[in-house]
Protein backbone atom coordinates (compact mmCIF):
# COMPACT_ATOMS: atom_id res chain seq x y z
CA UNK A 1 0.00 0.00 0.00
CA UNK A 2 2.85 2.38 0.83
CA UNK A 3 4.41 1.85 -2.60
CA UNK A 4 1.05 2.54 -4.28
CA UNK A 5 0.65 5.80 -2.37
CA UNK A 6 4.19 6.81 -3.28
CA UNK A 7 3.49 6.06 -6.95
CA UNK A 8 0.27 8.10 -6.93
CA UNK A 9 2.03 11.03 -5.23
CA UNK A 10 4.63 11.02 -7.99
CA UNK A 11 1.88 11.26 -10.60
CA UNK A 12 0.11 14.22 -9.01
CA UNK A 13 0.97 17.82 -9.95
CA UNK A 14 2.24 18.41 -6.41
CA UNK A 15 4.51 15.40 -6.68
CA UNK A 16 5.82 16.69 -10.00
CA UNK A 17 6.55 20.08 -8.46
CA UNK A 18 8.27 18.51 -5.46
CA UNK A 19 10.50 16.36 -7.68
CA UNK A 20 11.48 19.40 -9.69
CA UNK A 21 12.39 21.32 -6.53
CA UNK A 22 13.97 18.42 -4.62
CA UNK A 23 16.87 19.47 -2.44
CA UNK A 24 19.85 17.54 -3.83
CA UNK A 25 22.49 19.05 -1.53
CA UNK A 26 23.34 15.72 0.11
CA UNK A 27 23.55 13.86 -3.19
CA UNK A 28 25.75 16.64 -4.56
CA UNK A 29 27.93 16.47 -1.47
CA UNK A 30 28.24 12.68 -1.64
CA UNK A 31 29.34 12.81 -5.29
CA UNK A 32 31.89 15.52 -4.48
CA UNK A 33 33.24 13.52 -1.56
CA UNK A 34 33.38 10.26 -3.55
CA UNK A 35 35.44 12.07 -6.18
CA UNK A 36 38.00 12.97 -3.52
CA UNK A 37 36.67 16.46 -2.84
CA UNK A 38 38.23 18.46 -0.04
CA UNK A 39 38.69 22.14 0.73
CA UNK A 40 40.89 24.23 2.98
CA UNK A 41 39.43 27.50 4.19
CA UNK A 42 41.41 30.73 3.94
CA UNK A 43 42.86 32.27 7.09
CA UNK A 44 42.96 35.79 5.64
CA UNK A 45 40.79 37.90 3.35
CA UNK A 46 41.73 39.95 0.28
CA UNK A 47 39.76 42.91 1.65
CA UNK A 48 40.96 45.30 4.34
CA UNK A 49 37.53 46.34 5.62
CA UNK A 50 33.81 45.64 5.40
CA UNK A 51 30.58 47.59 5.63
CA UNK A 52 27.01 46.33 5.52
CA UNK A 53 24.23 48.55 4.15
CA UNK A 54 20.89 47.88 5.85
CA UNK A 55 17.47 49.44 5.46
CA UNK A 56 14.03 49.20 7.01
CA UNK A 57 12.11 47.91 4.01
CA UNK A 58 11.76 50.12 0.94
CA UNK A 59 13.78 52.77 2.75
CA UNK A 60 16.33 53.56 0.06
CA UNK A 61 19.40 51.54 1.06
CA UNK A 62 20.09 50.82 -2.63
CA UNK A 63 20.92 54.54 -3.04
CA UNK A 64 23.92 54.13 -0.73
CA UNK A 65 24.92 50.95 -2.54
CA UNK A 66 24.83 52.89 -5.81
CA UNK A 67 26.89 55.70 -4.30
CA UNK A 68 29.64 53.35 -3.11
CA UNK A 69 29.84 51.72 -6.54
CA UNK A 70 31.29 55.04 -7.71
CA UNK A 71 34.40 54.78 -5.49
CA UNK A 72 37.77 53.27 -6.27
CA UNK A 73 38.61 50.82 -3.52
CA UNK A 74 34.99 49.77 -2.92
CA UNK A 75 33.73 46.42 -4.17
CA UNK A 76 29.97 46.03 -3.91
CA UNK A 77 28.14 42.76 -3.28
CA UNK A 78 24.75 43.59 -4.78
CA UNK A 79 22.17 42.75 -7.42
CA UNK A 80 23.54 45.14 -10.05
CA UNK A 81 26.95 45.06 -11.73
CA UNK A 82 29.64 46.56 -9.56
CA UNK A 83 31.95 48.94 -11.42
CA UNK A 84 35.02 48.94 -9.20
CA UNK A 85 38.75 49.12 -9.45
CA UNK A 86 38.95 45.32 -9.35
CA UNK A 87 36.63 45.06 -12.34
CA UNK A 88 34.26 42.49 -10.86
CA UNK A 89 30.74 41.86 -12.13
CA UNK A 90 28.69 40.58 -9.19
CA UNK A 91 25.25 40.82 -10.77
CA UNK A 92 22.90 38.25 -9.31
CA UNK A 93 24.49 38.02 -5.87
CA UNK A 94 21.55 39.68 -4.17
CA UNK A 95 21.27 40.34 -0.45
CA UNK A 96 23.72 38.46 1.77
CA UNK A 97 21.34 35.94 3.38
CA UNK A 98 23.84 33.36 4.63
CA UNK A 99 24.28 35.18 7.92
CA UNK A 100 20.83 36.43 8.88
CA UNK A 101 18.21 33.91 7.74
CA UNK A 102 16.90 30.81 9.49
CA UNK A 103 19.59 28.17 9.06
CA UNK A 104 22.28 30.82 8.58
CA UNK A 105 25.52 31.33 10.46
CA UNK A 106 24.01 33.47 13.23
CA UNK A 107 21.20 30.95 13.70
CA UNK A 108 23.67 28.08 14.08
CA UNK A 109 25.61 30.15 16.60
CA UNK A 110 22.70 29.70 19.01
CA UNK A 111 23.32 25.96 18.94
CA UNK A 112 26.84 26.56 20.27
CA UNK A 113 25.92 28.87 23.14
CA UNK A 114 24.23 26.59 25.63
CA UNK A 115 24.09 22.84 26.29
CA UNK A 116 20.33 23.18 26.72
CA UNK A 117 19.93 24.10 23.05
CA UNK A 118 21.93 21.15 21.74
CA UNK A 119 19.64 18.15 21.82
CA UNK A 120 19.14 15.60 19.09
CA UNK A 121 15.94 17.22 17.81
CA UNK A 122 17.23 20.80 17.59
CA UNK A 123 20.58 19.61 16.30
CA UNK A 124 19.00 17.70 13.42
CA UNK A 125 16.65 20.56 12.58
CA UNK A 126 19.51 23.10 12.62
CA UNK A 127 21.63 21.11 10.16
CA UNK A 128 18.66 20.62 7.84
CA UNK A 129 17.89 24.34 8.00
CA UNK A 130 21.48 25.12 6.94
CA UNK A 131 21.32 22.58 4.10
CA UNK A 132 18.09 24.14 2.80
CA UNK A 133 19.40 27.71 3.04
CA UNK A 134 22.66 26.75 1.31
CA UNK A 135 20.96 24.78 -1.47
CA UNK A 136 18.52 27.57 -2.35
CA UNK A 137 21.07 30.38 -2.05
CA UNK A 138 22.04 32.26 -5.20
CA UNK A 139 25.68 31.39 -4.58
CA UNK A 140 24.95 27.66 -4.65
CA UNK A 141 22.44 27.75 -7.50
CA UNK A 142 24.20 30.05 -9.93
CA UNK A 143 27.89 29.62 -9.11
CA UNK A 144 28.72 25.89 -8.99
CA UNK A 145 32.39 26.63 -8.37
CA UNK A 146 31.42 27.86 -4.89
CA UNK A 147 29.61 24.67 -3.87
CA UNK A 148 32.68 23.01 -2.30
CA UNK A 149 32.69 25.85 0.26
CA UNK A 150 29.24 24.80 1.43
CA UNK A 151 30.25 21.13 1.49
CA UNK A 152 33.34 21.99 3.52
CA UNK A 153 31.32 23.98 6.05
CA UNK A 154 28.69 21.25 6.26
CA UNK A 155 31.18 18.51 7.10
CA UNK A 156 32.90 20.71 9.67
CA UNK A 157 29.69 21.29 11.66
CA UNK A 158 28.30 17.74 11.47
CA UNK A 159 29.61 15.18 13.93
CA UNK A 160 27.49 12.25 12.77
CA UNK A 161 25.11 11.50 9.91
CA UNK A 162 22.71 8.57 9.98
CA UNK A 163 21.69 7.74 6.42
CA UNK A 164 18.24 6.40 5.70
CA UNK A 165 15.76 5.94 2.88
CA UNK A 166 12.98 6.93 5.28
CA UNK A 167 12.46 10.18 7.14
CA UNK A 168 13.96 9.48 10.56
CA UNK A 169 13.12 12.74 12.27
CA UNK A 170 11.58 16.15 11.67
CA UNK A 171 8.62 15.22 9.48
CA UNK A 172 6.78 18.21 10.92
CA UNK A 173 9.41 20.49 9.35
CA UNK A 174 8.39 19.41 5.86
CA UNK A 175 6.20 16.37 5.20
CA UNK A 176 7.69 16.04 1.71
CA UNK A 177 11.28 16.57 2.84
CA UNK A 178 13.99 14.92 0.78
CA UNK A 179 16.38 15.31 3.74
CA UNK A 180 15.71 11.91 5.26
CA UNK A 181 19.04 11.46 7.02
CA UNK A 182 19.55 12.39 10.66
CA UNK A 183 22.33 14.69 11.86
CA UNK A 184 24.22 15.45 15.05
CA UNK A 185 25.97 18.79 15.32
CA UNK A 186 29.63 18.77 16.23
CA UNK A 187 30.33 20.20 19.66
CA UNK A 188 32.57 23.25 19.59
CA UNK A 189 32.96 26.40 21.63
CA UNK A 190 31.36 29.59 20.44
CA UNK A 191 34.76 31.08 19.62
CA UNK A 192 35.75 27.96 17.64
CA UNK A 193 32.52 28.19 15.69
CA UNK A 194 32.99 31.91 14.99
CA UNK A 195 36.51 31.23 13.70
CA UNK A 196 35.13 28.57 11.36
CA UNK A 197 32.51 31.03 10.07
CA UNK A 198 35.10 33.76 9.64
CA UNK A 199 37.31 31.49 7.52
CA UNK A 200 34.28 30.33 5.53
CA UNK A 201 33.37 33.95 4.76
CA UNK A 202 36.95 34.87 3.91
CA UNK A 203 37.10 31.97 1.45
CA UNK A 204 33.75 32.91 -0.06
CA UNK A 205 34.81 36.53 -0.58
CA UNK A 206 38.22 35.53 -1.95
CA UNK A 207 36.65 33.14 -4.46
CA UNK A 208 34.07 35.69 -5.57
CA UNK A 209 36.60 38.49 -5.96
CA UNK A 210 39.93 36.84 -6.86
CA UNK A 211 41.42 40.08 -8.20
CA UNK A 212 40.71 42.17 -5.09
CA UNK A 213 43.75 43.80 -3.50
CA UNK A 214 42.60 45.37 -0.28
CA UNK A 215 39.91 48.02 -0.10
CA UNK A 216 36.41 47.79 1.31
CA UNK A 217 33.83 45.09 0.61
CA UNK A 218 30.31 46.55 0.66
CA UNK A 219 27.72 43.95 1.71
CA UNK A 220 23.97 44.05 1.20
CA UNK A 221 21.92 43.51 4.39
CA UNK A 222 24.27 40.91 5.89
CA UNK A 223 23.10 41.57 9.48
CA UNK A 224 19.69 43.04 8.71
CA UNK A 225 17.19 42.62 11.58
CA UNK A 226 19.68 40.59 13.65
CA UNK A 227 20.01 43.27 16.31
CA UNK A 228 22.07 46.43 16.47
CA UNK A 229 24.84 45.27 18.80
CA UNK A 230 27.79 45.53 16.42
CA UNK A 231 30.13 43.85 18.92
CA UNK A 232 28.24 40.62 18.32
CA UNK A 233 29.28 40.63 14.66
CA UNK A 234 32.95 41.52 15.07
CA UNK A 235 34.17 37.91 15.49
CA UNK A 236 32.73 37.09 12.07
CA UNK A 237 34.10 40.10 10.19
CA UNK A 238 36.60 42.00 12.33
CA UNK A 239 36.19 45.76 12.04
CA UNK A 240 32.91 45.54 10.10
CA UNK A 241 30.93 48.80 9.94
CA UNK A 242 27.26 49.40 9.33
CA UNK A 243 25.18 52.05 7.57
CA UNK A 244 21.45 52.11 8.34
CA UNK A 245 19.33 53.89 5.73
CA UNK A 246 15.97 55.23 6.80
CA UNK A 247 13.19 57.06 4.97
CA UNK A 248 10.13 59.05 5.93
CA UNK A 249 7.67 56.21 6.52
CA UNK A 250 4.95 57.96 4.53
CA UNK A 251 7.04 57.29 1.43
CA UNK A 252 7.44 53.67 2.53
CA UNK A 253 3.66 53.38 2.95
CA UNK A 254 3.03 54.70 -0.56
CA UNK A 255 5.54 52.24 -2.02
CA UNK A 256 3.91 49.39 -0.14
CA UNK A 257 0.40 50.31 -1.32
CA UNK A 258 1.38 51.16 -4.89
CA UNK A 259 3.39 47.96 -5.41
CA UNK A 260 1.35 45.79 -3.04
CA UNK A 261 4.44 44.58 -1.19
CA UNK A 262 3.01 41.64 0.75
CA UNK A 263 6.12 41.41 2.91
CA UNK A 264 5.48 44.96 4.16
CA UNK A 265 2.28 45.21 6.21
CA UNK A 266 -0.08 47.82 4.77
CA UNK A 267 -3.62 46.41 4.63
CA UNK A 268 -4.53 48.93 7.34
CA UNK A 269 -2.63 51.87 8.80
CA UNK A 270 -2.62 50.01 12.12
CA UNK A 271 -0.87 47.07 10.49
CA UNK A 272 1.64 49.39 8.82
CA UNK A 273 2.42 51.28 12.03
CA UNK A 274 2.91 48.04 13.94
CA UNK A 275 5.39 46.89 11.29
CA UNK A 276 7.34 50.14 11.35
CA UNK A 277 7.45 50.29 15.15
CA UNK A 278 8.86 46.79 15.18
CA UNK A 279 11.43 47.68 12.51
CA UNK A 280 12.61 50.75 14.43
CA UNK A 281 12.25 49.22 17.90
CA UNK A 282 15.92 49.57 18.86
CA UNK A 283 17.13 52.13 16.33
CA UNK A 284 18.63 55.48 17.26
CA UNK A 285 20.11 58.00 14.83
CA UNK A 286 22.62 58.86 17.56
CA UNK A 287 23.90 55.33 18.13
CA UNK A 288 27.70 55.61 17.64
CA UNK A 289 28.16 51.96 16.71
CA UNK A 290 26.64 52.50 13.25
CA UNK A 291 26.03 55.37 10.85
CA UNK A 292 22.51 56.52 9.98
CA UNK A 293 21.63 58.05 6.60
CA UNK A 294 18.26 59.57 5.75
CA UNK A 295 17.40 58.88 2.13
CA UNK A 296 15.83 62.31 1.65
CA UNK A 297 18.92 64.05 3.02
CA UNK A 298 21.28 62.04 0.83
CA UNK A 299 19.39 63.19 -2.25
CA UNK A 300 18.63 66.81 -1.30
CA UNK A 301 21.79 67.59 0.68
CA UNK A 302 24.08 65.42 -1.39
CA UNK A 303 27.54 66.92 -0.79
CA UNK A 304 27.18 67.07 2.97
CA UNK A 305 25.81 63.55 3.34
CA UNK A 306 28.46 62.13 1.00
CA UNK A 307 31.17 63.77 3.10
CA UNK A 308 29.72 62.16 6.23
CA UNK A 309 29.75 58.73 4.59
CA UNK A 310 33.31 59.24 3.39
CA UNK A 311 34.42 60.19 6.90
CA UNK A 312 32.71 57.15 8.42
CA UNK A 313 34.25 54.71 5.92
CA UNK A 314 37.66 56.44 5.72
CA UNK A 315 37.17 57.16 2.03
CA UNK A 316 38.97 60.04 0.36
CA UNK A 317 37.10 62.42 -2.01
CA UNK A 318 39.63 61.65 -4.75
CA UNK A 319 38.48 58.02 -4.68
CA UNK A 320 35.08 59.20 -5.96
CA UNK A 321 36.14 58.82 -9.58
CA UNK A 322 32.76 57.85 -11.05
CA UNK A 323 30.63 60.50 -9.37
CA UNK A 324 27.08 60.65 -10.70
CA UNK A 325 27.31 57.48 -12.78
CA UNK A 326 25.21 55.29 -10.47
CA UNK A 327 23.49 57.54 -7.92
CA UNK A 328 21.84 60.43 -9.71
CA UNK A 329 20.22 62.89 -7.25
CA UNK A 330 18.32 64.59 -10.06
CA UNK A 331 16.52 61.30 -10.67
CA UNK A 332 16.30 60.05 -7.08
CA UNK A 333 14.64 63.31 -6.01
CA UNK A 334 11.49 62.03 -7.71
CA UNK A 335 11.17 59.55 -4.83
CA UNK A 336 10.95 62.27 -2.18
CA UNK A 337 7.58 63.37 -0.77
CA UNK A 338 5.79 60.96 -3.08
CA UNK A 339 2.78 60.88 -0.74
CA UNK A 340 1.80 64.34 -1.97
CA UNK A 341 0.81 62.73 -5.28
CA UNK A 342 -1.78 60.53 -3.58
CA UNK A 343 -4.54 62.78 -2.20
CA UNK A 344 -6.86 59.76 -2.12
CA UNK A 345 -4.73 58.44 0.76
CA UNK A 346 -4.68 61.71 2.70
CA UNK A 347 -6.67 60.27 5.61
CA UNK A 348 -4.35 57.28 6.04
CA UNK A 349 -1.23 59.44 5.70
CA UNK A 350 -2.50 61.86 8.33
CA UNK A 351 -3.10 58.95 10.72
CA UNK A 352 0.47 57.76 10.16
CA UNK A 353 1.95 61.23 10.71
CA UNK A 354 -0.03 61.82 13.89
CA UNK A 355 0.85 58.40 15.28
CA UNK A 356 4.60 58.51 14.57
CA UNK A 357 5.78 62.10 13.98
CA UNK A 358 9.44 61.17 14.58
CA UNK A 359 9.27 58.68 11.72
CA UNK A 360 7.59 61.31 9.50
CA UNK A 361 10.40 63.85 9.65
CA UNK A 362 10.16 65.46 6.19
CA UNK A 363 8.64 68.95 6.39
Structure characterization notes:
This protein is an alpha/beta fold. It contains 16 helices and 7 strands. It has a 5-stranded parallel β-sheet. It has a two-stranded antiparallel sheet with strand order 3-4. Helix 6 packs antiparallel against helix 10. The longest helix is centred in the middle third of the chain and has 19 residues.
Residue share in β-strands: 5-15%
Amino- and carboxy-terminal Cα gap: 70 Å
Structural class: alpha/beta
Radius of gyration: 23 Å
Average pLDDT taken over every residue: 87
Report the uncertain regions.
7-20, 81-92
Q: Order of helices and strands, N to C? A: HHHEHEHHHHHEEHEEHHEHHHH
Number of helices: 16
Side by side, the strands of the main sheet go 2-5-1-6-7
As a percent range, the share of helical residues equals 40-55%
The description of the largest β-sheet is: 5 strands, parallel
User: Judging from the principal axes of the Cα atoms, what is the shape?
Assistant: globular
Q: What is the number of strand segments?
A: 7
Amino acid sequence: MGKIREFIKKLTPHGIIMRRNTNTFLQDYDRWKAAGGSITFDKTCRFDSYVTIDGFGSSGSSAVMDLLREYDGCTVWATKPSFTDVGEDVSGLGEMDLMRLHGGLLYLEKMMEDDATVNVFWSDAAVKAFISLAFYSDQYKFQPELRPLFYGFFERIVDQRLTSDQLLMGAYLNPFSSLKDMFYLKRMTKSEYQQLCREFLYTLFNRLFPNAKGGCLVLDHIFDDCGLDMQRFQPYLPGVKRIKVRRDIRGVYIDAVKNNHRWLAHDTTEDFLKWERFSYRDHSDENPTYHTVKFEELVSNYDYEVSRIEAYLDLKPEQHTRKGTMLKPEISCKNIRIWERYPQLAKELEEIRNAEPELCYTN
